[in-house]
């Protein structure tokens, strides 16, 4: 079963942080895709998307995995290892 989450730029700006819970299958890797939007709802090209791993046992531990960038239509995709007991956090930054 495929799930799709969609957040508007207004939701992200007004909330500051948006958290979404979802169950993923048990494969050894995940392929996460998404679209970065401007506050007005337009796809944002060249946005930096930083990927972090959070430790459930110690929330103060944050591991920065890397950065990917959105394409001309605002979309991005990244392959990540599935690590039990960890959560991924993605942060989007607009280009200069």
Count helical runs.
1
Helix content: under 10%
Shape: globular
Strand content: 35-45%
How many beta-strand runs? 5
Structural class: mainly beta
Please describe the biggest sheet, giving its number of strands, its sense, and whether it closes into a barrel.
3 strands, antiparallel
Cα-atom Rg, whole angstroms? 14 Å
Low-confidence stretches: none
| SSE order | HEEEEE
Kindly report the average pLDDT value. Answer: 80
CA(first)-CA(last) distance: 38 Å
Query: How are the strands of the biggest sheet laid out side by side?
Result: 3-2-5
SSE topology sketch:
Layout: H1 9-15, E1 29-35, E2 48-55, E3 62-69, E4 75-81, E5 86-93
Antiparallel strand pairs: 1-4, 2-3, 2-5
């Amino acid at each position: 079963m495929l799930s799709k989450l969609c957040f508007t730029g207004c939701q992200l700006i007004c909330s500051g942080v948006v958290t979404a819970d979802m169950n993923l299958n048990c494969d050894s890797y995940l392929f996460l895709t998404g679209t970065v939007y401007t506050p007005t709802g337009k796809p944002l090209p060249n946005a930096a998307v930083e990927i972090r791993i959070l430790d459930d046992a110690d929330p103060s531990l944050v591991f920065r995995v890397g950065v990917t960038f959105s394409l001309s239509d605002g979309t991005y995709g990244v392959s990540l290892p599935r690590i039990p007991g960890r959560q991924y956090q993605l942060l989007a930054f607009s280009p200069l």
